[in-house]
Sequence to fold (396 residues):
Amino acid sequence: LGRQASRNHLSIMFTVHDIDKSNALSEYEYIKMWRDEFDGDMRREVAFKFMSDKGQFEREVKLRDGLDTNYVLGMIDHYDFTVDGEFHNAHCTTYQEMDLKKYKYAITMPFADRNLETILRSERPTLPQKIEYSRQIAEAINHLHVNNLIHGDIKPTNIVHFQGRLRLTGFHSSRKIPREGKSYVGAEFSSGYLPPKMISKITTDSDLDKFRNYFLKNEEDETSELWKKVKPKFIENKTAAYLVKTFKYAEKLENASNGDHFQEEEPESPDSLPYDLVVASPAFDIWSFGSLLYTLFTDTTLFKLNRKDDLVNVSAMEELYNWDEEKNKKYTQRITIRAARKLVSKLLQRDLPDCDLPDRYNTMASILEDDFFKIDLEGEPHYEEDILEKVIKFSE
Fold:
């Protein structure tokens, strides 16, 4: 906003729209201000993403720069409220129940009409639609990889429908693949869509203590949302536990006067963790894409998940940790469309070091060449799904 109006104009703008003179804008006053001042009273819906950490904010702005909005939900603008303190203070009085005071950074994006989770739950897409959705998602992921970017959290809620096409959003877990050095994934995650190599098995007290000491600096940390998400899940006899190979970003104090913190690009003390961190690579997103297609063609998730798309119990984590060809076949046989089953089976191959499996895809570009995407359904939208299944099987 500071780029659209001077501070004096901002002050006048809030005063004019504070109709009841309460020194705070109600929901009605807030919306009316946006429409009057910036939309010319024309309806235009945008989505705000607020962030409290400057490092996360700057990373997301930088990562989105140069990406094609045909594949990702574009960024309209970004705001650093520390630059315009007057607007920040006024904004914090708007929705007091939301407690936005600590969220000093924001980006605005177009307001998508729905996400893929809603589409799958409410619209029962046809087979041609599912194939087209698969293609659009694959093209979007490939676009990121061509730009040396790993999304890191491919799942239905991070895929939105906007202007007739599915696009990627949710870049909080994304990482650049550097030309030199290494970049790691796992600081933020949805464990229900993670590949097997992201799960660690802990069998000793010393390794368990390392993990606890890394994340639990004081007693209050045990009740934190972070610990609830990352804490180990024990098997029944307590002889082993499973957890995600996650980590924290190193932090530095950005501004001693107000306590602002800035997340560094590097992990915090990775040597103190009981496992090696996972290097960012296309294989990470390829597995997640396979999990997504499994859901698309079976109407269920690979494992039972909670509302945050995390694995709900230790048995699911153990199953993922021990993933092999037998489990691959067990799960993928539930996909009735043969071409889709063959593709998902290739996508859900375990990524082992120094192991070049002939049936495993290593790039999204090669995935887009799969026979699954060569099925020609154009001109036959009137076919029922069972007929289309027969057409596909016949073509194979």
Observations:
- Confidence is low (pLDDT under 50) at residues 1-6, 256-262, 379-384.
